[in-house]
């Protein structure tokens, strides 16, 4: 008769001992992660702005982060990191340590430029987590005062009889590429790091067309230094009620408004992400914050939109860019 023994063999004992020691080794790591989450934030939080100084992003983020800082009992350091059509700053954000101490601006420009570039330095859906949807603002197509055209229709006619003679410059060529597809116009693209540099050259007549957020352009428009041709949206803006929406001429154009979110590199511990999201959400729910953003020219209906809507906007912009590229083949590199 065979008897079963409940004694473990020496090899089984060694295996059990290894598993036990491995579990002990993990405990300090888990404790450290939990401690970091509970202590967050223990130092200032860096906010990467992948655009040059002088644009709409700094004043907008200053309004929001000042309020979020009060909630988190820390400070936010806003840092411009322009270059390569937002690629430099956005790639830096993607590679940042996922600890909650580096966040940054993500929006329609990156959604478009990531498609226009053959070199993929990051993936907007794979490499980032949404912290907060902030706001949006219409953009305006403008020309210089000495241009041979003063309306969108006249510009298209001029381009038809002078193919390639119109020089367009901005941080992204998409607004003009879409017009090109819809109207069969030919133009010359002049890339810029950001809107301020392009606008300086436009005022001097070194380029013929540019695009910028309405708030940035209002002083130049009111001073008679640039001429607005169209609001690149499906509706007019009350800031420029006499300027037609582009869809009044080209119904299929859609909307090229600037929309802005704050994002973080993928992999941030959930407790830290919850703290960041709560701080921004509470800031954006304050009437005073929404009023300040509105005074800057932003539409706050997009504020605190769910992450699913942000994802839908990214994929929507990418799809529009791919449709344009299928016809133009105009990649930035």
Q: Spell out the CATH superfamily of the largest domain.
A: Bordetella uptake gene, domain 1
User: What is the overall shape?
Assistant: globular
* Secondary-structure element pattern, one letter each: HEHEHEHEEHEHEHEHEEHHH
CATH hierarchy: architecture of the largest domain: 3-Layer(aba) Sandwich
- For this structure, what is the CATH class of the largest domain? Alpha Beta
Largest sheet strand order: 2-1-3-10-4
Beta-strand content estimate: 15-25%
Secondary structure: number of strands: 10
Summing up helix and strand content along with how strands pair, one would put the structural category as alpha/beta
CATH topology of the largest domain: D-Maltodextrin-Binding Protein, domain 2
Average the pLDDT over all residues and give the rounded result.
Answer: 88
- The residue ranges in which pLDDT falls below 50 over 5 or more consecutive positions are 1-6, 20-37
Main sheet makeup: 5 strands, mixed
In DSSP terms, counting alpha (H) and pi (I) runs of 4 or more, how many helices? 11
Rg over alpha carbons: 25 Å
Roughly how many Å apart are the termini?
80 Å
Count of discrete structural domains: 2
Helix content: 40-55%
